[in-house]
Request: fold
Amino acid sequence: MIAILKSGVTDQQIENLCSWLKKQQLDVHISRGQYTTVLGLIGDTSRVDTSLLESLDIVQSVTRISEPFKSANRKFHPADTQVCVNDRVKIGGGTFHIIAGPCSVESQEQILCVAKAVQASGATLLRGGAFKPRTSPYDFQGLGTDGLALLLHAKQETGMPIVTEIMNINLLDAFENVDVIQVGARNMQNFEMLKALGHTKKPILLKRGLANTLKELLMSAEYIMAGGNENIILCERGIRTFEPYTRNTLDLSAVPMLKELTHLPVVVDPSHATGMSRLVKPMAMAAAAAGADGLMIEVHNDPARALCDGPQSLTPEQFDDVARAVRRIREAMA
Amino acid sequence: MIAILKSGVTDQQIENLCSWLKKQQLDVHISRGQYTTVLGLIGDTSRVDTSLLESLDIVQSVTRISEPFKSANRKFHPADTQVCVNDRVKIGGGTFHIIAGPCSVESQEQILCVAKAVQASGATLLRGGAFKPRTSPYDFQGLGTDGLALLLHAKQETGMPIVTEIMNINLLDAFENVDVIQVGARNMQNFEMLKALGHTKKPILLKRGLANTLKELLMSAEYIMAGGNENIILCERGIRTFEPYTRNTLDLSAVPMLKELTHLPVVVDPSHATGMSRLVKPMAMAAAAAGADGLMIEVHNDPARALCDGPQSLTPEQFDDVARAVRRIREAMA
Amino acid sequence: MIAILKSGVTDQQIENLCSWLKKQQLDVHISRGQYTTVLGLIGDTSRVDTSLLESLDIVQSVTRISEPFKSANRKFHPADTQVCVNDRVKIGGGTFHIIAGPCSVESQEQILCVAKAVQASGATLLRGGAFKPRTSPYDFQGLGTDGLALLLHAKQETGMPIVTEIMNINLLDAFENVDVIQVGARNMQNFEMLKALGHTKKPILLKRGLANTLKELLMSAEYIMAGGNENIILCERGIRTFEPYTRNTLDLSAVPMLKELTHLPVVVDPSHATGMSRLVKPMAMAAAAAGADGLMIEVHNDPARALCDGPQSLTPEQFDDVARAVRRIREAMA
Amino acid sequence: MIAILKSGVTDQQIENLCSWLKKQQLDVHISRGQYTTVLGLIGDTSRVDTSLLESLDIVQSVTRISEPFKSANRKFHPADTQVCVNDRVKIGGGTFHIIAGPCSVESQEQILCVAKAVQASGATLLRGGAFKPRTSPYDFQGLGTDGLALLLHAKQETGMPIVTEIMNINLLDAFENVDVIQVGARNMQNFEMLKALGHTKKPILLKRGLANTLKELLMSAEYIMAGGNENIILCERGIRTFEPYTRNTLDLSAVPMLKELTHLPVVVDPSHATGMSRLVKPMAMAAAAAGADGLMIEVHNDPARALCDGPQSLTPEQFDDVARAVRRIREAMA
Reply:
């Protein structure tokens, strides 16, 4: 970390600052120029509060040389992390997995039908929403714990590990047999939830918030990792921009950028990002080509009747076509 | 609500759709054109799931004529809501209140000193963070319940009602003597928290999320109101844009726009929006001129040593100058 | 186009509006509901000024059913347009071309060296900047007409058609032997330039503005087409968002979305979008997988010494690797 | 300017870089730390191409200490610039002027009627569009030179200096008697136009682009100033964000921020920013309170029939009310 001091700062002020910094267990290297004094701070700067340092009267600006995330940082952990969901499903480190299923779990028939169809097409994890974050309190909020039970039944029938979203950390016990707990975009900075999940050993699928930077996404991963849980799968699902044709703008450059910054696996959700089922295939192929470790795709046995997010769901037949196209892309990258 | 059907839709399909809509307790008025059939839906359309309707094969597009928020809608409640914090402090309906205090509560001496200073300058509510949402798990997270105790002590000493942020709904009991509970920008769509606060009678200061639309802000207010708590104060605190000079972009047009859409009071936080203490005065004046019902301003007795958000805090002397300037603006508007 | 009228509008007002609309050569279909009257406007609604219509006292809202672009609209021209650059190079309609070359033309040696290298790796068009749009008046502005001459010499030596940016329509004559004229992102809504280019027969590579919607991009294409020039290649090159790690956010969902909306070919520029040479390969592959008709990639014989935009340029060796990877993706899509 | 070098850089590499920098007429101050070498560059760094420097293999990052704009920079020109439009109208330096008039000039009757009305209410400059930038080629493009003639006639009749937009630099001669030439938001980075205007002595009203940063706005001013024309009035007119209720988001914090960064006057256009006439009054008042040097407001004698931008225009009566309210705000600030 480099702190550039304002011109006209006195020796006494510099000395005071340095002694304060040293108390924070940092080594300080001072270089005095004709116009500017520059401090190089060496040590665990991820624990330095940049905004506090910048607020000091004598500081002109602060530049981080190392990133503020530490456990998630590839610099300190060069090898890819592989998140083990079960003996067969390991995400990251060169594998490629497709998570598929309906937006909301609606009935036993529905979830089983979709699960078997996507499994036959190559999906290795089953997704389904039991608790749904909805902008309006008047919209369908999911089947709740009944939905969880239906998912667990589908897991038993198919052997597929399940991925589902948590919205209330008080219900964590009900997620005991859930294989991957999803933190939705709106809860990416629900720090209390992140801390609580850090004390579990569950794989966490952490979705990027609609208006969150990659650095913020990694800092949220850091919250979970700081608690001791390093089983994190990052998920790009589109960011909010000014473009109205698509619901959100899928930021695929986030994939190689994240793979450079962190050792954690990165999957892409093209369904929520675009909000349109007919854009899912090209965006799924593009995500695979960009180097994603997997995909998360909405599939419904009857999209026209889906209780929510219908326009972005594929039929099982469409999903099969997408899965084949994605496999061909993956083969071309081998 | 107007649903425009695709061309080539059969009479049978239209009939099926209409009978489904009528089951949702909507009246349907059909008008058939040469190329297009338009359905007018009449009734409580706030409960209609637009995305579901749009997902239907035969529907081209859906246009809401009335807004999806109902309890918060000025159309159904033309008079301004006045949120009564205590006998003397009522927010909305023509009053103007300044909420002031430090970003974080740090010590008894600090909070008392700031409280007395801002009270002398005209602030009527005391703010202070006990639980702090920080992007990094390594940054200072607030004094927690100890911070709450210090705030309550300052309330007792000064008589000022206090405003402080909740981050974990399980700690709601600890907020029993807090006068206004703040929901921070990052929790604006923490729907479980909103539902829980809807079951209290506490005044809620609901901050707009960094990338949330006004409609989403009002839908979040609607979550609280749907539970029975109508004591909501909305707060504009800056949105995320591409401009890097200011931390966020304060959206002051949100003030008159919200006042048109809703009967709830609207306050503005110029400190967080700009992230720079020297922009607080002009933005506080502008917010008052734009018609805000109040301001929320960070004040610190020693900004250079504040444990967080130092650069945006004013000294008590600067706050006094701001409060005077704002009063002159308010008088010019009388 | 559907106009929804306000409640309480009189028959006389509706009649006046309808007679005014009919004068604009539109057929009007009126449907009166209990609460709302809806007008269906039929005819060439691309010539209707929506904002004017919405400004009328009696109009509640206006919804376009057909898009405001007409010549560019795939609805009226279902087959892909193929832009013929020369006998061998035709862009669109199932072909795939890579445009490569340096950001700025610097010297005869440089442009020839790069041209031959990228041609050997499979690029079919040569790009190079002679006139450079720079944010600062103090930055290098390109070699101007000397740069054009160097490009034309490289064209003669290699047979590659050339693509270069125009910044001043008064210099159009100097572009006589340029094969594809590029309109840069900052000039996408320089309507006077678009009109002038509409009166040529030159292929135009039209880049999306940093903060322009797809509809605006298509309306800018429409300006050129309205003048009689239908040889337009659209180019996605990244949009401005809040994410700072990448210079811009490459919006790859724009590719399938544009292919649905228009018959014009769409190419992608991953170099400018990301601003980082190490992201060019994954984004080039992703763009091909998303269905782009071609790519535009910056290549420099010595990126470390490039006079501008160095960080985003590839070496010829890196470009060769990218071109091979993209070819494998294209083969996987066949 | 501070350049931080990568670790592991050799003495020879540092020496090479320093000798190259010295050739650019910069003094270089080297400070070697244990891990990092930092170069302090002293001299006219506004002429240093940051992206070139950052592209060098041995450079980790570059931080500007001084801003890249020079002529516009308040540091080098602390006193407010006052742009003299005529003997009576001087913008900046403590004055406050309102520019008012119709979006488009439509007829002699219209422009005269509006001009006299706004003059009576206190406006000191008359605006009116003769050349209109429209997203669609099918929308009304303005009366062109006929519109200019009508404006000049209104100037003669009322004595009000006129402000109107230029879209084609080839028509500069026709603007000879125009008092203030407006550069619209879409042409803010039309660098060829900026250069041409730099060779005139005309006051230029330079509007901020929809997605341009304040730094880019100032660099565009710098283009004009570099040509010798320092008569520039900056104009904030709203930026593009995700919020759909208002057409754009008026960034009022830009006012004090610009006033700190530059000595040039800053006016605000609340009409285009919000796109709604009923938001013009609160935003005009807020802009004055934020410290703007003036306002630009659309007024139409019959908004319901305006040929473009009707919904954002005020009637003369409404304008009179706005002007009074703004005057009271200005008085409260004295």
Notes: The two ends of chain B are 39 Å apart (CA to CA).
